[in-house]
Amino acid sequence: MYHVSSAVEMMDTSHHKERREQAMVRGIDRGTRMLELGKKRSATFSRVRMGIVLSAIVVCALLYNHEWFVTGNWVFAAWIILFVIVAQYHSRLEDGLARLRLWIQIKQTNLARLQLDWEGIPESHLVLPADHPHGGDLDLVGGHSLLRLLDTTVSHDGQTRLVSWVADQNDHPLSFADWFSRQALVKAFTRFSGLRDRVRLVAKLVSQVPINGDRIYVLLQHSFDIPYLTLQLSVAGGLATINVVLFAIWAMGFGPGYWIISFLCYGFLILMTRARLGHVFERTIDLQMELAKLAAVIRVLEKRSFEREEAIRHVTEPFRTGDEPPSLAIKQLARICSGLSLKGHPLIHIAINLIGPWDMAWTWYLQKVCERLRPVLPVWLEQVATIDAAMALSTFAFLNPSYVWPTRRENSANKDAGVVTTSLGHPLLRHEQRVSNDFDLQAVGQLFLVTGSNMSGKSTFLRTIGINVCLAQAGGPVCADAWEWSWVRIHSCLRVGDSLEEGLSYFYAEVKRLKGILLAVGNGEQAPVLYLIDEIFKGTNNRERLLGSEAYIRELTTGHGLGLVTTHDLELARLEDELPGITNVHFQETVGEKELKFDYHLRPGPCPTTNALRIMAMEGLPVPTQEMT
After folding, report:
1. DSSP class of 4
2. pLDDT exceeds 60 at position 105
3. pLDDT of residue 385 exceeding 90
4. Does residue 437 sit in helix, strand or coil?
5. 450: which strand partners?
6. Are 188 and 311 a contacting pair, CB within 8 Å?
7. For labelling alongside 37, which of 53, 63, 492, 550 has CA 20 to 30 A away?
8. Spatial distance between the Cα atoms of 214 and 109, rounded to a whole number of angstroms
9. Shortest CA distance to 363 belongs to which of 456, 259, 474, 274?
10. Residue 597 confidence (pLDDT)
């Protein structure tokens, strides 16, 4: 239970990491060389285009000056054709360079995630509720957080789903079958590194902003059923045709200007429907961008059959049903939104609607397409969100090949609850800084009382357990050599601060957190609680802290939970002799002349040393010398 990973195991882990890292560095270097070569070719094309323009001006000027007008016209036409051809090739090259730049950027962020180089990982603005039972304690969100490391999603819905998988496990426990299906999906996508990067690439080529599914939902959920629109469109179309015919007759002098009468009737009809069509424009403005991104992502998934990947084939099945590929149907909807967005150009919009019922026709077309897509588009968005979140976890797994896929046990009995793991490490620490420990926490009512000196690693160890449980229950791999566990609800009390808004002191805020844990442990109808408590009751005096901690720990061991409690009160170690569920473990340091060294190894029994006075003395604070000996 207290074994620490050997040097051979650490070297093997480092070797796995280095091979993947070297492959990514080589790929980035190759892409950078191709980009530099492409820039040179682009500069050459620019010079050639400028040369074509200048030579065309000079040659045509000479020809016209000698009154060779016909020859000059032919030469001018030839130069235009040549310029268009060169410009087209140049445009294709620039598009390729844009794709290459994004590809390099994606690879660089992947490398930053592999190396835990936080400056190279895109910032995350994800937040969790202030009363989340463990999010802040376990670094699920924030600057150096798990979700920032995981989040490679391309859609808001995918990001929301990823956050839910990682952080909302207490409220949304998964059955064994559902969890197994999710892990199988994440595992399957791990083998498709190129596909995952391509999905990110095509989405970012359209826009760097994630796909906003809410806009698409609004478009579908709100009805565009304008009364008698088909009849109005037929009448307006007929009047527009009459206008054109009568205007042509009048313009050629074959008849009087009766077109004014039909035009006034047409204008009156357009004005009547204008107010009804106004809300359509408001809902569809800029929506074509969202639809274009969604179509690009789905098109990548449509092209693969996934015949050998049952999990992926199941989640992509809705993309293969129906009369037409989803990407084409969505692109059709995007074109309609683009047509309606012409209202953003008032002069052109008015001119076109004076000729024919442009807005009315596109709105009618939108009605028909929305009627056809309303049953299926929400399903496609749902599947894209699931795929997006699963791909984020798959990228994490791919970048950490030494991590293990966890094995879940059913919560069939209290004795089956808990975590059994070997070489457990913290996934937010670099592998050269990480110290791994074996750990065995089984059976409801079991409590590990963790003692140790300041900075010895107690709090980090609690976070190590908690964050890996979050990963396991989300369906991802864990930072360990072996991991077996049963579903738990995580509650923690590691970081507690004063709440100025609620007028709470540190101690009262801590008491409220601890009460919440006790209430959760008292609920025996749900999964067992894994509680992680750091420095219990440290906001009060020694005597009351000791009395309160002892009473609280006794109550914990009788509830529907198991976990770890750290403390500096070595007097609590005697509870191991009184309560069968309590086990003492500790971390300790090695004392040098001018420094303390920590190995972060978990050891059995209560801590035999303390270091508070020595740290104070090392920093020049006055301490009683007799206590230092």
Report:
1. B
2. yes
3. yes
4. strand
5. 566, 585
6. yes
7. 53
8. 27
9. 274
10. 77
Distance, CA of 534 to CA of 599 (rounded, Å) = 20
pLDDT-derived band at 152 (thresholds 50, 70, 90) equals very high
What type of residue sits at position 174? Answer: L
pLDDT digits (tens, 9 = 90+) for 207-250: 888 998 888 887 776 656 677 777 878 888 888 888 888 888 88
N-to-C CA span, the chain: 33
Let me know the angle formed at the C-alpha of 228 by 226 and 233, rounded to the nearest 5 degrees.
95
Domains and CATH numbers, the chain: 200-397 (no CATH), 407-627 (3.40.50.300)
DSSP 441-480: EESTT-EEEEEE-TTSSHHHHHHHHHHHHHHHHHT--BSS
Query: Which pTM was predicted?
Result: 0.85
Amino acid type, 451: T
Find where tokens 């098109």 sit: 299
Dihedral Cα 123, 125, 128, 129, nearest 10 deg: 150
What residues form DSSP beta bridges with 529? 489, 561
Q: Which residue has the tokens 């410009």?
A: 87
517-526 tens-digit pLDDT: 999 999 888 9
- In angstroms, the CA 488 to CA 414 distance is 11
- Give the integer Cα–Cα distance in Å for 27 and 20: 11
* Nearest CA among 225, 548, 189, 517 for reference residue 363: 225
What mean pLDDT value characterizes the chain?
Answer: 85
- What's the CA angle centered on 261, arms 259 and 264, to 5 degrees? 105
